Amino acid sequence: MLGLNRGRERICILKDVTGILKPSRMTLLLGPPGCGKTTLLQALAGKLNKNLKVTGEIEYNGVKLQDFVPEKTAAYVGQYDLHVPEMTVRETLDFSARFQGVGSRAEIMKEVIRREKEAGITPDPDIDTYMKALSVEGLERSIQTDYIMKIMGLDTCADVLVGDAMRRGISGGEKKRLTTGEMIVGPSKVLFMDEISTGLDSSTTFQVVSCLQQLAHISEFTILVSLLQPTPETYELFDDIILMAEGQIVYHGPKSCILSFFESCGFKCPERKGSADFLQEVLSKKDQQQYWSCTKERYNFVTVDQFCDKFKASQTGQNLAEELSKPYDESKGHKNALFFSIYSLSKWDLLKACFARELLLMKRNAFIHITKAAQLGLFGLITGTVFLRTRMGVDRIHANYYMGSLFYALLLLIVNGFPDMAMTIERLPVFYKHRDNYFYPAWAYAIPSFILKIPFSLVGSVALTSISYYLIGHTPEASRFFCQLLILFLMHTVILSMFRCVASYCQTMVAGSIGGTLAFLFTLLFGGFLVPRLPYHYNISA
């Protein structure tokens, strides 16, 4: 009625998408930008936006997506490498393994031991030790971390900080491999990767995909990787191909059959042309004609719908349809392959792990926290020297001076709390990634951050109060001193929490600066100094 919905229209992102992803095989997802690759990956990983309307079904081992926790069963790797720059590669993987747990490894290990005893088999000591180490829950350091670092080629930089634009750290290719390793260090055996070549050169992309190929073939992972323009060497590493255009699947099957399918449609890939480039250009209206090989027939543009119809009529399409029509054989799947609980650890273990992580980060940023506490002590000294050798009486005339000193202390505490907003905003992307993958809930992340800041707030408040209190000339009674110390300590704690709250709502530095300034102004406005609520008949006495 108000015109808010004017011009809004429904858009079909994916249409008639069907297929099968099998273990021990690595599938390449190809298609031009905007064809729905990211949406398909998010749909398979259970990470679609709640506002999207979805029809159809997605099943894992014959179980519908709504009947288990897909975020724990499958790992979704986005285009961006989001990590805490103050942590090393090993620490990042160790905490990831700790939060994700061991899954069904403990039960599998018990079953293996039982069968070994029944059959009278003596296992190899090294293999037995390795298998038992993998199945132990709650370890701060896991042998799985060393295994993943070896496979992903991260063992050479295990103790190097991840780094960022302001800190020297690992390279871009190592960050991309760390992003993958962070997800596969857990028990998940399904991996969806979206545009992992973003920001990487062709050589580094080839190395990353080679590591993924080893995971798929050795560890029996099911991997679907989206790439925009893979090189011929990278293309050859994949087993299957899914080619998309306009939200539809043009081809889904073995890599060895895709070129012959397009030849049957009248299009041939030139000898010196990369297969991946050909597959994407042959669907384009402006590039399709150059690949037309039927010289005896007149060329007419073949639409995506026509390609889809020809694929369904092809032998590969018929084999896929026949396989989809058969019900899933439950004997082929393990009962513990899917996850039905949101978090892998108990609430207490989650809290302990988050405490350990936050304590590590506070040690790495000790200079910042110590400097903030020292800053309050320095401001207390400067404030005290302003009132040094002044003679102020305890009366209504000088009351505003005392109130002004308290108001100035409030200003110092607010200014001292501003850096916490920037630090919180900097870590929000990593927190959202971990939260969406059910590493830990929000409360387990927030409580350690609040509690571990208390000692620094106490030290800063003690430094500010002990230096400035008697220099200003407040009442020398010990009870009044400790009362002011308690008030300043509680104020500092509340201010830090306020700025962390502003950061979590605003989420960017620009919006955070606006929100922080508004919070700052409201605190000043209702601080009791600008608009005092003191009754006129109130008498001030010693």
Write structural notes for this entry.
With 542 residues, the protein is α/β, with parallel strands linked by helices. It has helices spanning 37-44, 70-73, 89-100, 105-119, 125-134, 143-151, 172-184, 202-218, 232-235, 258-264, 275-281, 304-313, 315-325, 347-364, 366-386, 396-436, 442-472, 478-506, 509-525; strands at 25-30, 59-60, 63-64, 74-77, 190-194, 222-226, 240-245, 248-254. The strands form two sheets. A six-stranded mixed beta sheet has the order 4-5-6-1-7-8, with helices on both faces. It has a two-stranded antiparallel ribbon with strand order 2-3. A hairpin with a 2-residue loop joins β7 and β8 (248-254). α15 packs parallel to α17, α17 runs antiparallel to α18 and α18 (478-506) packs antiparallel against α19 (509-525). The longest helix is centred in the C-terminal third of the chain and has 41 residues, at 396-436. The N and C termini lie far apart (66 Å). The model has no long low-confidence stretch (mean pLDDT 81).
